[in-house]
Amino acid sequence: MKKHILIIEDNRDLARLIEVHLRDLSYMVEVAGDGVSGLARAEADRFDLIILDLMLPGLDGVEICRRLRAKHSYVPVLMLTSRSSEVDRVLGLEIGADDYVTKPFSIAEFIARVKAMLRRVELLGGAQETSDEPVIGMGELEIDPGRRVVLRRGSPVDLTAKEFDLLLFFARNKGRVFTRAQLLDAVWGYSHDGYEHTVNSHINRLRAKIEDNPARPDYILTVWGVGYKFCETAKAGT
Questions:
Q1: Which CATH architecture describes the domain 133-230?
Q2: DSSP strand pairing (141-144 vs 136-138)
Q3: Quick one: which of 32, 92, 151, 195 could link to 142 by a disulfide (CB 3.0–4.6 Å)?
């Protein structure tokens, strides 16, 4: 089945360029030129990927992403931003975008990112449909892979889609040490020099949500000079 992609971008030339290249890959593509019509289209149909500009007339990308993430169904979001500051990029990821691309970008890199996101979603979806993987219990955490739910002390933990994927990957590989590049490739589906900070920011936010003291974590541990690992015991140091 062809992948269905929605582009929400007010720059007509850029939207058309992206549309042409995606159609060349046999994807079904729709384009919305402002935030209000883009959100309406996103909510009216099922898409495999939404390419979302941060700055839009009518309704900006942050608000659109926030409203999409408030829905029960999940759709991956690739955010486009002309801003280069880390604050803006982290903001996009914090409110639920799965990844971002900073303008100007090369079409080759952009297409590689799109393919990687679609591949990751397909693999994760297939695993959920064919596996009766049990709930993973670790200390005060419970991770339900099928329902994509995390509980801490019995209360739900509000995670973005990518934060959940990262935590689940760690929990499935307890005690194994991963470099940032390995995590980027395994969870995001691509490996690219210079994007390891994406891993860092996600780990920092995960720690803030699941750790009693993020500065002295019990679950996601730093292996200095190498990368990160998930603890092998219920609570590290106990």
A1: Orthogonal Bundle (1.10)
A2: antiparallel
A3: 151
DSSP class per residue in 152-175: ETTEE----HHHHHHHHHHHHTTT
Distance of CA 20 to the CA centre of its chain: 25
Single-letter residue type at 85: S
CATH number of this structure's domain 4-127: 3.40.50.2300
Residues 6+ apart with CB under 8 A from 105: none
The two beta strands, 141-144 and 149-152, are antiparallel
pTM: 0.65
111-146 pLDDT, tens per residue?
Answer: 988 998 888 777 655 444 445 678 899 889 999 987
- Give domain limits for the chain: 4-127, 133-230
